């Protein structure tokens, strides 16, 4: 069994852990009313997208989800939050160094004994969610669960939804698909982006991601029999009917959309294994991007 498979399956129990509930009360995380920038790279950026949408929807303040390499240092923020599993990613460290003096900074990381602890004013450590696989799964979802809990969300059913997502067989139409497109709306757009990244990273698959309402403005042209359109969260009115007309298989699961991401992670691992790839060490990737 791959590390990736083990780490995917461990997520529901980690989401339910008391450690996450305790950390959700951290006074270093964004406070209601603050204008916040959330930085990340790759998977962490997509989790930032989900958090930013949730925070704004909760009325807690303007929140920008930014790729760390594009951080606008001259824009005013009340707090800067960085997500970094390794704590060593060059772009994240460089962005934190650009934050104006006096602006609070905090990093969520799996390894606090890294340079990010010096770069950020405060650190929230999710060391229990660290991973051996290059492909991120549980650190990212634990970070998002932490932030959702900090926003005051009730997540009582999340772990149970996650357990079902781990245990339920994946449909044959998904396992045999030529192509998969992921769609999301609001906070689930970040999940759609992350699901597509997982399939590209681990399985070298042809996969795309779009805002659900934007999908009909061109990308729906690739939908066809033998392909899959996977919708996270509540689909916009009329979308499922439009998709049915394309002949593509539509995948849409009940329950918390974050649990549905677990199924996409499982698909990535399954496809990688079936294609003779190493799901823990994708081609051309390392655990952290460190630029010279």
Automatic annotation (TrEMBL):
Single GO molecular function: isomerase activity
Keyword Membrane: no
Domain of life: Bacteria
UniProt key word Isomerase: yes
Entry-linked InterPro entries: GlmS/AgaS_SIS, GlmS/FrlB_SIS, SIS_dom, SIS_dom_sf
Residue span(s) of domain SIS: 26-163
Entry keywords, A to Z: Isomerase, Repeat
Listed PANTHER family: GLUCOSAMINE--FRUCTOSE-6-PHOSPHATE AMINOTRANSFERASE, ISOMERIZING (PTHR10937)
Protein's recorded name: Sugar isomerase
């Amino acid at each position: 069994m791959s590390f990736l498979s083990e780490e995917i399956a461990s997520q529901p129990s980690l989401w339910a852990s008391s450690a996450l509930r305790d950390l959700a009360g951290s006074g270093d995380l964004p406070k209601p009313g603050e204008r916040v920038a959330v930085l990340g790279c790759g998977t962490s950026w997509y989790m930032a997208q989900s958090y930013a949408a949730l925070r704004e929807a909760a009325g807690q303040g303007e929140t920008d989800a930014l790729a760390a390499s594009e951080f606008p240092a001259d824009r005013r923020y009340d707090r800067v939050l960085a997500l970094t599993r390794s704590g060593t990613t060059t772009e994240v460290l460089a962005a934190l160094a650009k934050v104006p003096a006096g602006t609070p900074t905090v990093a969520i990381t799996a390894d606090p004994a890294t340079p990010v602890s010096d770069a950020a004013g405060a650190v929230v450590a999710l060391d229990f969610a660290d991973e051996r696989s290059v492909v991120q799964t549980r650190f990212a979802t634990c970070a998002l669960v932490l932030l959702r809990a900090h926003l005051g969300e009730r997540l009582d059913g999340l772990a149970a939804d996650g357990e079902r997502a781990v245990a339920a067989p994946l449909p044959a139409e998904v396992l045999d698909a030529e192509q998969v497109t992921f769609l999301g709306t609001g906070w689930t757009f970040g999940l759609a982006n992350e699901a597509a990244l997982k399939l590209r990273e681990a399985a070298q698959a042809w996969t795309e991601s779009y805002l659900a309402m934007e999908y009909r403005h061109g990308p729906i042209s690739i939908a066809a029999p033998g392909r899959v359109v996977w919708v996270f969260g509540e689909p916009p009115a009329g979308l499922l009917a439009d998709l049915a007309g394309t002949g593509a298989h539509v995948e849409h699961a009940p329950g918390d959309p974050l649990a549905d991401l677990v199924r996409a992670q499982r698909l990535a691992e399954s496809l990688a294994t079936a294609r003779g790839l190493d799901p823990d060490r994708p081609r051309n990737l390392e655990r952290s991007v460190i630029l010279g």
